[in-house]
Automatic annotation (TrEMBL):
Catalyzes the transfer of the enolpyruvyl moiety of phosphoenolpyruvate (PEP) to the 5-hydroxyl of shikimate-3-phosphate (S3P) to produce enolpyruvyl shikimate-3-phosphate and inorganic phosphate. Pathway: Metabolic intermediate biosynthesis; chorismate biosynthesis; chorismate from D-erythrose 4-phosphate and phosphoenolpyruvate: step 6/7. It comes from Actinomyces oris. Its EC number is 2.5.1.19. This is 3-phosphoshikimate 1-carboxyvinyltransferase. GO terms for biological process: amino acid biosynthetic process; aromatic amino acid family biosynthetic process; chorismate biosynthetic process.
Length: 474
């Protein structure tokens, strides 16, 4: 299956001065995916408000529709949906061959979360996606589903897309006291997928990862989301080691009702980072006081990179002067933030600072091998980047313009945009891949930069210029 069409190369704009902007961001990709999936199997209809509408969520909506759920746009924005859940076993929309088909695109949540649900369907479902998706590991999840009784057919290289998931003899719908182990070292999504499945099994599920699990914040988000919808989950005892941690999900259908989705705090990163590079301030409203999103770590990371962060009445503001510092950071729990941190660290290298980003070996299995991609792009810019087993070392070096690649990876595209703020002559082959999680990125980026020189840089200056995500719900 093909990726979405690409545009002509985009020339990243250089910051013309200190910024003074408020950037209104759409809903969290991670929370939207979990909310949609739980609504699709809930005990009653659910109304979702603040839903992200992007390529990833469009793929999730299409996938869940194949499994029998229905979605109604309540106000024409696409961000407020009424979800009618599907009964169990899930009724698959099949072709003449009796097989359902789901396009996962390059969406990790679709390719990992939905196959687990498909094991509860009344017909087999074939999964495939973009060319780059066929390189992303799937074996641990597929092996775990097979251990639980699903029928797994590998249609290409074993452990990768394309594959087919079938109900087998229906063992999962009869499972009492199901237990399974999964190797979660390549992705926390394997753990989350099985936790989301567990409540739908008659006796629930005990799940034990056999190795280290990166991005545990995302597993915590899954647990919190289940609990919010009325599902009881027991987490591992504090201090339990790898292979000893067990999650217990008790049976039950998630509650329907009203669900409000927080703004995407990870997507806030590039905009907040812009204040550190250009100087001035950039704010994001509706920042939650308590959240399971990895992006909340910006409050701790940005000050270590040379900025100042304030949070007042739900408005998070990053203040910067253009002076950056290096950082030595273990990003194992917040790996999705690494490309933005790497961009700031690369620019800090022009000011004589060395940075080390560790705990992110699992990024090799994301939309692209992000560690190799980051190191390659930094070197194209004239920078000094060394790929190490679990991360990157970025050393001082002058930078120059270059034609950069996105690798069809939205985080690599925003990496290039941040670099372009401080380095003239940076272009990007495919900025439209940002629509994976943030449609209208270039318009929002340009509007933020248009505020240069419009206001003060201090926390007590004049009101910011407010920018909202351009959007038609697409």
């Amino acid at each position: 299956m093909d990726s979405f069409s690409k545009s002509a190369p985009w020339r990243a704009p250089v910051a013309a001065g200190a910024l003074d902007a408020v950037v209104e961001l759409p809903g969290s990709k991670s929370l939207s995916a979990r909310a949609l999936l739980l609504a699709a199997v809930a005990d009653a209809p659910t109304t979702l408000t603040g839903l992200l509408r992007s390529r990833d969520t469009e793929l999730m909506l299409a996938a869940l529709s194949v499994l029998g759920s229905r979605f109604e746009d309540l106000d024409g924005s696409g961000t407020r949906l009424r979800v009618t859940p599907a009964p169990l076993p899930l009724h698959v929309q099949t072709g003449s061959d009796g097989v359902g088909r789901i396009d996962v695109g390059l969406a990790g949540t679709v390719m990992r979360f939905v196959p687990a649900l498909a094991a509860l369907a009344d017909a087999p479902v074939l999964f495939d996606g973009d060319e780059a998706a066929r390189c992303r590991p799937m074996a641990p999840l597929l092996d775990a589903l097979a251990d639980l009784g699903a029928e797994i057919s590998h249609l290409g290289k074993p452990g990768f897309l394309p594959f087919r998931v079938g109900p087998g003899d229906g063992a999962l719908l009869r499972a009492e006291g199901a237990r399974v182990a999964v190797d979660g070292s390549a992705s926390s999504q394997f753990v989350s997928a099985l936790l989301l499945l567990g409540a739908l099994l008659p006796g629930g599920l005990e799940l034990t990862p056999t190795g280290p699990v990166p991005s545990l914040t995302h597993v915590g988000m899954t647990v919190a989301t289940l609990r919010e919808r009325g599902i009881a989950v027991e987490e591992p005892a504090p201090g339990a080691g790898d292979g000893e941690r067990t999650w217990r999900v008790y049976p039950g259908r998630p509650r329907g009702g009203q669900v409000m989705i927080e703004p995407d705090l990870s997507n806030a990163g590039p905009f907040l980072a812009a204040a550190l590079v250009a100087g001035g301030r950039v704010s994001v409203p509706h920042w939650p006081t308590s959240t399971t999103q990895a992006g909340d770590a910006w409050r701790e990371l940005l000050p270590r990179l040379g900025g100042e962060v304030t949070l007042t009445d739900g408005l998070l503001t990053a203040h910067g002067t253009g002076r950056l510092t290096g950082i030595h950071a273990d990003l194992s729990d917040v790996g999705e933030l690494a490309p933005t941190v790497a961009a700031l660290a690369t620019l800090a290298g022009t000011q004589g600072h060395t940075s080390a980003l560790t705990g992110i070996a699992h990024l090799r299995g994301h939309e692209t091998d992000r560690l190799a991609a980051l190191a390659t792009q930094i070197r194209l810019l004239g920078g000094d980047a060394e790929e190490i087993p679990d991360g990157l070392i970025i050393r001082p070096a002058p930078l120059h313009g270059a034609a950069l690649r996105s690798y069809a990876d939205h985080r690599m595209a925003t990496f290039a945009a941040i670099i372009g703020l401080g380095v003239d002559g940076v272009s990007l082959d495919d900025v439209e891949c940002t629509s994976k999680t943030l449609p209208g990125f270039t318009d929002l980026w340009a509007a933020m930069l248009a505020t240069a020189g419009e206001g003060g840089t201090g926390p007590d200056g004049a009101s910011h210029r407010e920018l909202e995500t351009p959007g038609d719900g697409a």
